[in-house]
Amino acid sequence: MLKVINLTVFSKIGKKKLLDKVSFELKKGEIHCLLGKNGSGKTTLARVIMGLGDWAKVEGKINFLGKEIGRKKTFERAQLGISMAFQEPARFEGLSVEDFLLAGLRGKQKKNKYTRDKILKEALNFVDLEESILTRKIDQSLSGGERKRIELASLIVMKPKLMILDEPDASLDIIVYNEFYDLLLKIRRELGVTILLITHREEAGLVADVATLIEKGKTIASGRFRAVMRNYCQREGRQERCLLGRKGRTNN
Amino acid sequence: MKNIFLSSIKICGIAKEFETKKGLLLVEGNTIVEKAVPKGIAMKGAQRGKLVELKMTVGKGVKIKEPLFFCFGLSQAKAEQFVEPKIILEEGAEINLISHCSFPVAKANRHEMNGLFEIKKGAKLNYLEYHYHGEHSGTSVFPLLKVQVAEGGVFQSEFNLVKGTVGNTEISLEVELADGASSEIQTKVLGKSAKDIVSITDKVFLLGKDSRSLIKMRSAAKNGGKVFMQGETHAKGAGALGHIDCQEVVIGQGSTAKAVPIVMVENETARVTHEASVGKINQKELETLMTRGLSEEEATELIVQAMMR
């Protein structure tokens, strides 16, 4: 579905090489983890795939569904079926949850009130939120958990082919992130969405099939989650605390 | 009611409030066209040359939920209007007043207002002012309003000029608060072209003990528009608290936004805070909406419209 080939990115300030010939492949229906420490280049990679950011130079290729998308704008990539949720979702003054969800709809889906309401209702049910939340504002009055679920609902209404989730599990406690991982499995299972999950949490092994390890802007390993995670832990010198997550969980 | 004013009421999104109104005052130019007020309210209007004088008194303890609707407007492209409203809310009175200022066909309109509101002990005025200045930036609007709020009284206001053009608009509001009185003032303005110049000054004097105020200003200057906003809070009363929150967005070349918060405290137990943000649209908000399939222009428009709601 997505092929990143020799992607090299230079920063605008200082012309620093942020990504250095990064390559990996994402297959349809996968939950693919991008692993790596803070500052390794995971978020930069996600932003470049999504067409966000102002870079001095971008080299290499990004193929999505067989087409080169490197020159397309963010909204064009979104309309092709890629979308992204941010680590700390934005808060908007005055914008209601309904307005925010509707932003992801196009054409007839948006114009027809019956269809529109149905899509919003289904998306909210999917992420276990009440319809009454539609009238609330996307501001500081929402809890962190509510805001993250709304972020997912807003991707679901778009019916994307690929969701890029940038550290969605950050700042969630153990109970909440277990529920969150269940939700990701449900999205994959019921909606057939492919997921690129950026994280540095080993617990992502509860849901991921495949992983790519990024270090200092370079691809270190890419393959089955366990193998890549083992590699990551060895490099971090903490093998004894590695790969605990998968135990007792069916990954489907 | 003339159809052009009804249209601008719809444009401003206050048609529902108009339908549910309890009373109406319509002033076209310097003529009082319609006047109907409910029981408990006394209203006198007089025309003196070019000037229209109005005095409305809401009786002691009179509480009316449904809005009273005032419409001041000009239905000709070149015309003037001068109004002097005085509104008194007697002790314990509570009303919602919507004032719609409408200049839908303006090419050279001038509107001046010199108003005084007196909110007596424990009374509450919820005041919404919606302006529509047409589509040709042909209006000059200069309203001055003084509000005196007595002990335990409440003044809540919202000024809204986000539909159509601005023209040349200079607004000045001054609020004085006695012991335990409070005010919340919101201003929303959208300048859309190089012909749109707006200057707004909201001043609050926290004179009484434990008085409270919030000044919230929101504006966007687009395509060469110029917006100046000054929020001032002066605290003298013991335990008085005030806050100024100003956000201005600049879009397109030649647009200018300027924010001036003025904070002055003359009592060691009082406190006033302020926050201001002036400049480009929040990048994170913009990027989020672009990843939902909106172009940068569509995303900007949605963010600005939401901010102005």
Could you list some keywords that capture this structure?
heterodimer; A: 252 residues; alpha/beta; six-stranded mixed β-sheet; four-stranded antiparallel β-sheet; 10 strands; globular; B: 309 residues; mainly beta; ten-stranded mixed β-sheet; nine-stranded mixed β-sheet
Summarize the structure.
The complex is a heterodimer of chains A (about 250) and B (about 300). Chain A has about 250 residues and is an alpha/beta fold.
Tell me about this structure.
By secondary structure, chain A is of the alpha/beta class. Chain A contains 8 helices and 10 strands. Chain A has helices at 42-50, 74-80, 97-102, 107-111, 113-126, 144-156, 174-191, 225-236; strands spanning 2-11, 17-26, 31-35, 55-64, 67-68, 82-85, 162-166, 194-198, 210-215, 218-224. A 6-stranded mixed beta sheet of chain A has the order 6-7-8-3-9-10, with helices on both faces. In chain A, helix 5 (113-126) crosses helix 6 (144-156). The model of chain A is unreliable at 244-252 (pLDDT under 50). By secondary structure, chain B is mainly beta. Chain B has 4 helices and 19 strands. Chain B has helices spanning 3-11, 15-19, 283-290, 296-307, and strands spanning 23-28, 31-36, 41-48, 51-58, 68-73, 78-89, 94-102, 108-119, 124-132, 139-149, 154-163, 168-177, 182-191, 197-206, 212-222, 226-235, 241-251, 256-265, 271-279. In chain B, a hairpin with a 2-residue loop joins strand 1 (23-28) and strand 2 (31-36). In chain B, helix 3 (283-290) packs across helix 4. Classes of the chains: A alpha/beta (252), B mainly beta (309). Chain A binds chain B through residues 50, 52, 73-75, 78-79, 83-84, 86, 88-90, 92-95, 99, 103-104, 106, 154, 158, and chain B through 218, 247, 282, 284-285, 287-296, 298-299, 302-303, 305-309.
